[in-house]
Amino acid sequence: MAGFNLIKNNKKMNVGKSIYLMLPAVFLIGCTSPATYRTPITQFQEASAIVIEGAKVEYGMANKRERDAVIDRKASKRYNIDLDSLTDDDSIILSPADLSLRINALDALGKHAQLLLILANSDAPAKSAAAANAFGSSVSSLLSELSKASPISNPLADPVKAFSAIAGEVINLVLEKKITQALDKSIIASDKNVMALINQLRTETIALYERHLNKLSESRRFATKEYNLLLSKPNLSFEELGQAVLRIKKAEDAYRDMSSSSVAASFDAMSDAHQKLVDYAKSPKRPQDLAELIEATESLVNKAKIITEALKTLRNTKE
Asked: Among the four residues 36, 90, 99, 260, which has the most C-beta atoms within 10 Å?
């Protein structure tokens, strides 16, 4: 919104995200038995589901965090607080339309994953067609939301349109029962179009995370300042002093827990996993190649699950 740049210029944001629901498709390049890849595909689906839910939480909490920060700033300066100041542009990062666009983008990626899984694990044309139509409906909703969004969502425009373009081609192939071609199209296009959408969402969620971390840092300073001011108060009670101490401890715990659970770490794990998948797709696909892939991806998926679950728990307990 006004005065706020959702995306920070962070050169370290070269990791892959949170939302790799379409990645299992890479396993299917050149394979003769999709069932061979069922275990790694399932593993990636589980990890991806956690990541996508984490991204939704991050977006959903953005406005609440900003509102709370406005309240804290006004309280620290002993300013009056009125309801209008809690709903103006300074207190809102994402409008309802902008938030809906991002949730729909995440949902569309999820539908894409469901389609790929069905194509990989089922030879029933009706089932594949139903999944394709569900994917198409999700993409249509996404395009509709894009038309309602504000300028802050402009960076999402090109990735969303590119993602939507490949959706139509894939759906047509599925409806024509050209399953192998549909999978190939999804895989080839994912490196550019799908990944562009994921990368944009990834960058935004990292920016929101870092913004929240800065707010927690401000809360630490406010809590310590409040405590120090209390020390000069005549007839200071032990109860008042104790409450101020508890606020310092709470602020410190929140900051340290959040800073040690960087959301970027889960994106790093997903980026590494994607690279392993690409490497495997380009390999001769010997048994040892598959064994190395499974070993590497199991480790990466477990890392992503642990980190993202930690972040989820942190948000539930601290916010």
From this structure: 99
Structure-block tokens of residue 277: 């998948």
Q: Which two tokens stand for residue 252?
A: 């410190």
Distance CA 261, CA 56 (A): 17
| Residue among 89, 42, 39, 38 at smallest CA distance from 63 | 89
Nearest residue to 161 (alpha-carbon basis) of 96, 206, 108: 108
- Determine the 3-state secondary structure of 303 from DSSP: helix
Would you give the distance in Å from CA 16 to the centre of its chain? Answer: 10
pLDDT tens digits, residue range 107-152? 888 787 777 777 777 667 788 888 888 888 888 888 888 889 889 8
Nearest to 152 by CA among 91, 204, 209: 204
Give the type of residue at 44.
Answer: F
From CA 182, how far away is CA 120, in angstroms rounded? Answer: 11
